């Protein structure tokens, strides 16, 4: 029987590694549009995203509690389950990052948890009400992002209807930096909390904490890991998000960033784990659709949606396979 503290340390290490990978995998969420429209230099944009991801990660723990307590019954959450869930999510994130596919770190982690729990304890161990709620918001949030982006873009065009295109672009080139700041903050407020929930789940399941409350050191560590990962940057996905879905002007970039910030932070306030990647890309599609349907490169959009659909089952399958190996190795 391995040392429990050593296994928990491994869980913490992998959770922070997931946050770090999430940071460079999802840097595009906050800076792609600003880089694409040249509102800000790429290196400056990444540093801005890193700082605001860190600040956003300190803003609450509602999402962490949802991830840690609403997916599976506490008795089913063993250390083998948690380790397998993290390995499955990390594997899928690295694979999609390598191919430049803006998939969802949230879907990967939730799929990993579901796959590991089912492999270890069976379907009955899942909290189906919680799983349905989480899956519903993961599906609904991109649709909401598409609608909000569409109407935001139309509203901005109406407000700018009496101005020349040159003046409009110049104004929104500056405002876009503020919108990117808000988008980065919202990204940190939602995504960093998912690893917080996983670490807290491990601490609670082993009796190291008496109640499911996220420790302060966990909040700080996850915020720092995501910020450091963001500082590394994810340039392959930035190219996909920034220019291959829709050709963006500064007003389009501002609309997309502001829309995604509103949807993501709203979800964070209600403890809803959304895919920031899905919300941002759907907001970009909504903004492009406001101009004309053909403005969206639907071939690229189809590739992204395909990744959305396959992420949960793929990461769940990988996590289930790793569970078998990890459980045999450590036996807990």
UniProtKB/TrEMBL annotation:
Q: Which GO terms describe its cellular component?
A: membrane
Q: Which domain of life is it from?
A: Bacteria
Keyword Hydrolase on entry? no
**An example of a Gene Ontology BP annotation on this entry?**
phosphate ion transmembrane transport
Q: Which InterPro entries does the record associate with it?
A: Phos_transporter
Record key words, sorted: Membrane, Transmembrane, Transmembrane helix, Transport
Any one Gene Ontology MF annotation carried by this entry is: phosphate transmembrane transporter activity
Task: Look up and give the membrane topology term.
Answer: Multi-pass membrane protein
The regions listed as transmembrane in this protein's record are: 6-24, 45-64, 76-95, 107-128, 134-160, 195-212, 219-238, 258-284, 305-326
Give compartment(s).
Answer: Membrane
Coiled-coil annotated spans: none
Q: What is this protein called?
A: Phosphate transporter family protein
């Amino acid at each position: 029987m391995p040392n429990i503290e050593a296994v928990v340390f491994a869980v913490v290490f992998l959770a922070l590694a997931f946050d770090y990978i999430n940071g460079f995998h999802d840097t595009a969420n906050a800076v792609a549009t600003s880089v694409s429209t040249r509102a800000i230099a790429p290196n400056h944009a990444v540093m801005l995203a890193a700082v605001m991801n860190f600040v956003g990660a300190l803003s609450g723990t509602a999402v962490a509690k949802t991830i840690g307590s609403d997916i599976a019954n506490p008795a089913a959450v063993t250390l083998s389950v948690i380790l397998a869930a993290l390995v499955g999510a990390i594997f899928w994130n690295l694979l999609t990052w390598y191919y430049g596919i803006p998939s969802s770190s949230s879907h990967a982690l939730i799929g990993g948890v579901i796959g590991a729990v089912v492999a270890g304890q069976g379907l009955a161990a899942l909290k189906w009400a919680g799983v349905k709620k989480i899956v519903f918001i993961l599906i609904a949030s991109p649709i909401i992002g598409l609608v909000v982006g569409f109407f935001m873009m139309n509203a901005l065009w109406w407000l700018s209807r009496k101005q020349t295109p040159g003046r409009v672009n110049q104004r929104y080139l500056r405002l876009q930096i503020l919108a990117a700041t808000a988008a980065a903050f919202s990204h940190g407020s939602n995504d960093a909390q998912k690893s917080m929930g996983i670490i807290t789940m491990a601490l609670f399941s082993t009796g190291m904490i008496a109640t499911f409350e996220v420790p302060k050191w966990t909040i700080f560590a996850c915020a720092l890991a995501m910020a450091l990962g963001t500082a590394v940057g994810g340039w392959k996905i930035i190219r996909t998000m920034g220019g291959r879905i829709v050709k963006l002007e500064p007003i389009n970039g501002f609309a997309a960033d502001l829309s995604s910030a509103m949807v993501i932070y709203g979800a964070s306030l209600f403890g809803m784990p959304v895919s920031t990647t899905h919300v941002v890309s759907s907001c970009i599609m909504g903004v492009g659709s406001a101009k004309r349907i053909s403005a969206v490169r639907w071939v690229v959009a189809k590739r992204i949606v395909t990744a959305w659909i396959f992420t949960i089952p793929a990461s769940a399958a990988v996590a289930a396979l790793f569970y078998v190996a990890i459980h045999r190795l450590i036996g807990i």
